[in-house]
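Hi support team,

I submitted a single chain yesterday and got back a structure, but I'm not sure I'm reading the token output correctly. Could someone confirm the output below corresponds to the sequence I sent? I've pasted both exactly as they appear in my results page.

Thanks,
R.
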Amino acid sequence: MKRYWPTMLMALVLAGLGGYLYFVEFPSEQARVQADEEEKQLLPFEEREITGLTIRTETEHIVLSPGTDHSWRITAPMQAPADSREVRALLRSLVLGKVSRVVEEHATALDPFGLDNPALVLTVQAGSRQETLSLGDAGPISSTLYAMRDSDRKVLLTDLSASAFFNKTLHTFRKKEVLDFDRSETDRLRFTYPNTEIALHRIRDPGTRPWQISFPVEAKADQTAVNLMLFQLEDLKALGFIDPGPERKTLAKRLGKPKVKITVHEDGAAQTVKLFHPDPSSGEAYAVTSKTDPIYRIIPSVIQRLTKDLFALRDKRLLGVDQEDIVILQVKTREDEYTLINQSDVWVLEDQPHETLDQQAVTLLVSRVAGLPAELRVVKKAGPLAPYGLTAPSAEFKATGKDGTVRGRLVLGKRTGGLVYAIGPGLSGIYQARADILSQIPSKGELLTKDPDQEAPAP
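Hi R., thanks for writing in. Yes, this is the structure output for that exact sequence:
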């Protein structure tokens, strides 16, 4: 038993040392590290604790307060929604800002640091707590600023960047989005032009929720075109503001009629914006949402992008049949003619049903025929077809649906440059489509799968 005493004694010593380290040294080291971190921290607040921000420069005094749903508002020198991203970016820079070193404990001369008359003074509130921070000149290395807190009056060298704080004006912090909506939740749209109107609605499909034109015709909409307009509308931003007052009243009188009035419906609520371009030569364009809101200066080109005719918003696929709805496709060109039939998701030739076809090539052909869009409108209503080569077509496709009825007939006529004249049930009238499709129609022989065991021909 005696021979184990040294080992047991050593174990007790190690346990005592471990306990000392765990209960004494480690907590004190953690406290020291925490104290060092707190000393380096520029502000003693977390971003989520901040309840107010005041920004003072030589020319402006801006007061910002939290709104609802993590938003911010300007409460002085005016009442207006704030650009929450700009506010949060500035607050984040402040909260993450660190003190590189204390330059002066009790500075008597502040002029060498630009703090005698600071360019920017920030007052941050966190409930009942408050800290005021003055920002002065740039430090000796890039991305550093001299600063001073009112709480201790020490001159600090910080890692703050001048670009994150200076040259910020009231305009910087104003919310510039003209409309506030979520395009993914929008369910109705209305475009009112001087001579016409276009209304669209979303079909209540739990999957894609496609857009449909409801006025002046009932037709499928071009999903890409509508979504692009929604994106541009959601991204419509003010370049400047004409706030309520004499200047706004004077400007409102000379705006005239709007180029377009757009109404966006979302969750039963509607927002409207009118776009004006009273003098195209001046380059000034405006957006108006209500009589009490500012008039917004906008980029003139936005009006052109948001002014579309019915053709631009319609589904421009000429055949008017979705690819998945086609079970029989008759193909006729000047050189070839065949009929493809979909049997349990496998395409076969009507007159050679036992031959194996290149399924990828057939699917690609059906996709191209079903998806061929009109590029240009030639005439709104189809008249004489001969001038366009449509009585003796270059190619013709007839699609039959799952119910056995002919769903559409696409006819391609004379080729002119990179376009070909075309008619189809998807759009009334005569159009031009891309002529590439004429060279992309495989012959019957090209659709047949070659036998892999067939010997290659001798050279």
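A quick pointer for reading it: The chain has three domains: 47-173, 183-313, 323-447. Let us know if anything else looks off.

Best,
Support desk
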